[in-house]
């Protein structure tokens, strides 16, 4: 036994070491993303199932979002029920089943400037959905919205679920039963509801089947004894996944019995089983139609647009509705769609499972920007008109000036011509007078 193992065998020292190892701490891994703080969601190793991780991760993701952090779930850098030993540190078991809450993976935040590693120990200070959500109300709505927004099942598993659901449940009205037997019955873990007996389940199921005219009963359980009892009671009306079931004794943990099975596969089977359970009592949509009331040819940027979604048959389940858009120019809100600050024409549709709706075309313009551009264009047009008018007036004035100069020049020329003619006349008359005088003198000298 190594020194570390010897120290861990001492309960007090092991608790101190575990608290120190999994404490929350801040760090910097480089200089990337300086404007963001990433919150790495962790959990210390313990023998828990997939949805135990989901519930505690929901609490830590909700906390991170409230603080303005970006959550990134880490089921890679520590042992967990769904990660093979040789893959620890190499693969993220969370991403076997779910997308990352905000799209950032661990590889994406290598070199990030601001990183917070969450406290990996789940204690009473943690907030996460527990059995109280079954009572409905605001608490249920809060955690339901957190799950819908940040916890997306991987596409390949979702498609497999749709295929299984169609074959197993079809369109039949189905009662879903989750029977937490095995170690939940034998060990009665602290903080968990006491599980009903098989007889109590059968009695309650008979009441609900009669009241709601259910055609099938879907049973999600890993307890072999419960499965056998309910199969005996309901026969062909009972359907359940074809999976291995167990019988635990004493304080035996069911996760120890699963050791021989592929860890990824057992997690996928459990997730599919829960998805099928959630699909009970709901009608699958055959067709989906999306429309916009009072549809407009153009919408302003940064505007919320109400959208109506209808499905056939009436009352079909649209809980897992997803909006699909061909670019980042449109975002989605609880009541519809929200135009961003990009102008353009965008195509929008919705899907639920393997059913897609019609496609809507939305044209987005910057109306204020357009009005400002039109105002500037009008100002420029008016200024151009004034410039042209001024140029025309100046040209007209210049033409008049030239005409006046020409008139003056013509008058001056006329005056000079008249003066020249007058001078010529005077000169002629003088010459004529002189010639007359000479002739008179010649006559007088010759009597």
- Count of spatially separate domains: 3
**What percent strand?**
15-25%
How helix-rich are the residues, as a percent range?
40-55%
Q: Outline the low-pLDDT stretches.
A: none
What is the number of beta strands?
17
Give the terminus-to-terminus CA distance: 181 Å
**Rg estimate, integer Å:** 46 Å
Secondary-structure-based class equals alpha/beta
Number of helices: 12
Instruction: Please give the largest β-sheet.
Output: 5 strands, mixed
Describe the global form: elongated
Q: Averaged pLDDT, please?
A: 86
Order of helices and strands: HHEEHEHEHHEHHEHEHHEEEEEEEEEEH
Structural account:
By secondary structure, this protein is of the alpha/beta class. It folds into three domains: 1-152, no CATH class; 153-282, 3-Layer(aba) Sandwich (Rossmann fold); 287-365, Sandwich (Immunoglobulin-like). It has helices spanning 3-8, 11-21, 50-67, 94-97, 137-150, 155-168, 182-186, 198-212, 224-234, 254-257, 263-278, 367-444; strands at 25-27, 38-41, 70-73, 115-117, 174-179, 216-221, 238-239, 287-291, 299-300, 304-306, 308-312, 322-325, 330-333, 336-339, 344-352, 355-356, 360-365. Strands 9, 12, 15, 16 and 17 form a five-stranded mixed beta sheet that branches. A four-stranded mixed beta sheet has the order 1-4-2-3, covered by helices on one side. It has a three-stranded parallel beta sheet with strand order 5-6-7, sandwiched between helices. The chain is elongated.
Outline of this structure?
This protein has helices spanning 3-8, 11-21, 50-67, 94-97, 137-150, 155-168, 182-186, 198-212, 224-234, 254-257, 263-278, 367-444; strands at 25-27, 38-41, 70-73, 115-117, 174-179, 216-221, 238-239, 287-291, 299-300, 304-306, 308-312, 322-325, 330-333, 336-339, 344-352, 355-356, 360-365.
């Amino acid at each position: 036994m190594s020194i570390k193992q010897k120290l861990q065998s001492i309960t007090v020292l092991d608790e101190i070491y575990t608290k120190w190892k999994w404490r929350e701490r801040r760090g910097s891994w480089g200089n990337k993303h300086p404007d963001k703080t990433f919150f790495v969601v962790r959990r210390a190793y313990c023998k828990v199932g997939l949805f135990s991780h989901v519930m505690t991760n929901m609490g830590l993701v909700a906390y991170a979002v409230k603080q303005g952090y970006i959550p990134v779930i880490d089921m890679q850098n520590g042992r967990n029920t769904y990660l093979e030993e040789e893959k620890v540190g190499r693969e993220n078991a969370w991403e076997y089943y779910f997308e990352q809450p905000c799209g950032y993976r661990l590889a994406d935040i290598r070199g990030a400037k601001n990183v917070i590693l969450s406290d990996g120990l789940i204690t009473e200070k943690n907030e996460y959905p527990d059995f109280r959500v079954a009572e409905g109300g605001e608490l249920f709505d809060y955690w339901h919205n957190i799950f819908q927004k940040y916890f997306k099942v991987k596409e390949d598993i979702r498609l497999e679920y749709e295929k299984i659901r169609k074959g197993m449940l079809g369109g039949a009205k189905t009662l879903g039963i989750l029977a937490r037997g095995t170690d939940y019955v034998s060990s009665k873990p602290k903080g968990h509801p006491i599980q009903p007996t098989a007889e109590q389940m059968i009695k309650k199921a008979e009441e609900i089947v009669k009241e709601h005219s259910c055609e099938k009963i879907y049973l999600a359980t890993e307890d072999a004894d419960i499965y056998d009892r309910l199969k005996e009671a309901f026969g062909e009306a009972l359907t359940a996944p074809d999976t291995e079931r167990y019988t635990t004794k004493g304080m035996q943990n069911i996760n120890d019995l699963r050791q021989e099975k592929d860890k990824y596969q057992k997690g996928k089977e459990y997730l599919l089983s829960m998805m099928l359970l959630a699909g009970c009592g709901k009608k699958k949509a055959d067709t989906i139609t999306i429309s916009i009331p009072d549809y407009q040819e153009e919408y302003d940027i940064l505007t919320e647009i109400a959208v109506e979604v209808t499905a056939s048959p009436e009352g079909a389940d649209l809980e897992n509705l997803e909006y699909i858009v061909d670019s980042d120019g449109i975002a989605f809100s609880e009541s519809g769609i929200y135009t961003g600050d990009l102008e353009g024409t965008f195509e929008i549709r919705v899907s639920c499972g393997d059913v897609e709706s019609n496609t809507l075309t939305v044209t987005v313009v910057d109306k204020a920007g357009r009005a400002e551009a039109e105002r500037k264009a009008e100002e420029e047009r008016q200024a151009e008109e004034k410039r042209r008018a001024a140029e025309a007036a100046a040209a007209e004035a210049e033409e008049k000036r030239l005409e006046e100069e020409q008139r003056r020049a013509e008058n001056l020329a006329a005056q000079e011509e008249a003066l020249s003619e007058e001078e010529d006349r005077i000169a002629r008359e003088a010459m004529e007078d002189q010639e007359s005088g000479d002739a008179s003198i010649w006559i007088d000298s010759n009597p």
